[in-house]
Amino acid sequence: MGTNQERKNEIPGVYLPLHGWGGFLVPILFVQQLSSWVLAMRLSVSYRNRWG
Predict the structure, then answer these.
(1) pTM of the full predicted structure?
(2) What are the tens digits of pLDDT across the range 5-37?
(3) Checking CA distances to 50, which of 5, 27, 32, 41 falls within 20 to 30 Å?
(4) Using an 8 Å Cβ cutoff, are 25 and 15 in contact?
(5) Where are the transmembrane segments (predicted)?
(6) Residue 41 to residues 23, 38, 47, 49: CA-CA distances in angstroms?
(7) How far is residue 35's CA from residue 38's CA, in Å, rounded to a whole number?
(8) Residue 28: which H helix or E strand, with range?
(9) Whose CA is closest to 14, among 3, 22, 2?
């Protein structure tokens, strides 16, 4: 698990909670989720404008 001193050093790395690929997957998945949500919002707005 590691000592308290090691844990304190790991806290600033928000995007690196896991060692290895985890550090890359977390922000990538977050960005994909955010972009898909934005795309859905744009589609709903365009449909509203089209059909009144």
Answers:
(1) 0.43
(2) 555 555 555 545 555 556 667 778 888 899 999
(3) 32
(4) no
(5) 20-40
(6) 28, 5, 10, 12
(7) 5
(8) helix 22-51
(9) 22
